[in-house]
């Protein structure tokens, strides 16, 4: 039985989904902008052309073991949620897809192209966590992760925010926002906690000081001024004092009232 798809290859040229993929091999380990990855056991979707040979010429049809290829100016590797809906995307420019038919009706893909956004290693594990949550991430789901996986979490949150962008800035709740600082033990944790406080589980509000300053002025969450109640501020003061002071300085400079709790 084929593994449930977690991704889909979408052609922006054709405005069509081409293949459903269980998991891309080598994509999240890419170290260069021009990269190759594979997707064994992909499912052809109606937008693909099963009879396309090299560069759109005639092929030999499914199940024959034939190999065919086609160029695309722009592809998206779209990340799917548990319901099969896209939640984020990676763009691949000047791409070429080569497919090899299998006797079971599936195809093995080889995709080459320019990665507009170099994937952070481990982000595929984060997408799997999000998918397992079924679209309802619990608060603090990032907290048990180590530092590297927290960085990957931030990358997933950023790409998810970009996918939904632009959104109107939400009105600040009457009591302001609340940040649970109990797991702010490293720099990525600081920004994971800020993102969750401003946008709920999986939310994004910057992954660096410069990105936080940008978010404070609109695009990915509430626009200052507002009130932020910071629970367990002592943990960040102990574990990441320099990063905390820089973040607090940016928040206050933008007009945010930070209250410890």
UniProtKB/TrEMBL annotation:
Similarity comment: family membership: Belongs to the barstar family.
InterPro entries: Barstar, Barstar-like_sf
Coiled coil (UniProt feature): none
Protein name: Barstar (barnase inhibitor) domain-containing protein
Residue stretches making up the Barstar (barnase inhibitor) domain: 178-254
Gly residues bias (residue ranges): 54-66
Domain of life the protein comes from: Bacteria
Pfam families (alphabetical): Barstar
Region (Disordered): 39-72
